[in-house]
Amino acid sequence: MTSTLASAKGNTASHSPGPRGLPLLGNLPAFARDPLAFFCHLRDEHGDWARWRLGPKRCLLVSRPEDVNDLLAGAETTFAQADLGYALHAVLGEGVVTSTGEDWRRKRALVQPSVRPRQVRSYASTMVECADAVAGTWQDGQRIDVQREMTRLTQRIAVRTLFGVETAGREEVIARAMAVAQQEIGAELRGVTAFFPGWVPTPGRRRLQAAVAELDAEIHRIIDEHHAARAAGEERDDLLSRLLAARDEKGAPLSDKELRDEAVTLYIGGHETTSTTLTWTWHLLSGSPEARACLDAELAEVLNGRLPAFDDYARLPFTQALVKESLRLYPPIWLISGVARAGARLGDREVPVGTTVWASQWSVHRDPRLFPEPDAFHPERWDPDAPTPVPDHAWFPFGGGQRTCLGARFALVEAALLLAVLAQRWRVDTDPAEVKPFTGLTLQPSRPIDATVRCTT
What we know:
By secondary structure, the chain is an alpha+beta fold. The protein has a single domain, classed as CATH 1.10.630.10. The protein contains 15 helices and twelve strands. Strands 1-2-8-5-3 form a five-stranded mixed beta sheet. It has a three-stranded antiparallel beta sheet with strand order 4-12-9. α8 packs antiparallel against α9 (203-231), α11 (256-286) crosses α13 and α12 (289-302) packs antiparallel against α13 (317-329). The radius of gyration is 22 Å and the shape is globular. Residues 1-20 are annotated as: Disordered.
């Protein structure tokens, strides 16, 4: 590494080293070609504080875990929410992820009780039931598209736990809309359209608007059904029903628009992240016979052929380690940012007002100073007795601080339980060719990951 935080000149971000950029565009072309490689290049060539420009925006990439933690801890105080772009805002609306200030605090207080551990426990049986149903449809020697199978599974769970319904047509409507959102958010993030005003009607935005309209119609139809059920005195135990019943300090409920925004946010958090994590986990497991043997041994000892329950999550430390290592190598949320306000600091250094500070899970999770053999799949690094423990704040797939993803617990439990159910009955041998990630709303495989499933009994 050519520079470190200690060797950087001055004591503010404006004195930090960084690459030269083009007039007007800054470093946008290099970022657009491959954002993940670009961030690793900044880290390796320009140090822990790397100055760059995204078009006209002054930017700073931080790579030290301590600085990442300060950035996350400073959300809502010294760092404002960065402009997330037209496409992301069109999908998420004004949900708990995109809102700020008092509006964010109100919504977080209303949403958080719906995803506490007690509620996650109540949904574990649904997770296991759905996974067991999928396991029963596979046949020995069958070829599958891993991502498609994991997506269908987590969609079914999300629709049942979030909306309290199970209709294949509804899953498909939401899935089609989210697939378009993935593509268009990624395209806008890496292109010049990110700087266009929201009213500019690009082809990509028209595609996105059509998909969001379809998504909104479906979700509002489900909300109307829940209103009718509630008026009729029907008791439901899904997440949407809990949100309908929630009241803020003034006794006010969430509006239908707010319910829509939170439903989409929770759907993405409870489905998109888990399906992607499981897809990468199967691919990583397929290339590591040692890890697969350890998983088989743990499942045989703890479960002995029975289906897991919520309490088994704590008894499956290696299964948890597989999920954590997959999240390290392929974090679904691969980028966080904040805009410096007056008085913003990271460690002992000042950050000029208006600077957009970025931290990338991808580049920090693959920093060789923090993770020996950073590109290798080593689940054992998560063993509490490992010789080289994971440094504090070096792993943040769900963000951190006050704005930690509310669905993190749901996603971790879901991924481990689904993996346990399926792995007891099946080996998933993926094709060995390299699969590069695509930087969209979440970090998706850039092509289908095909596999052959083999019965373990």
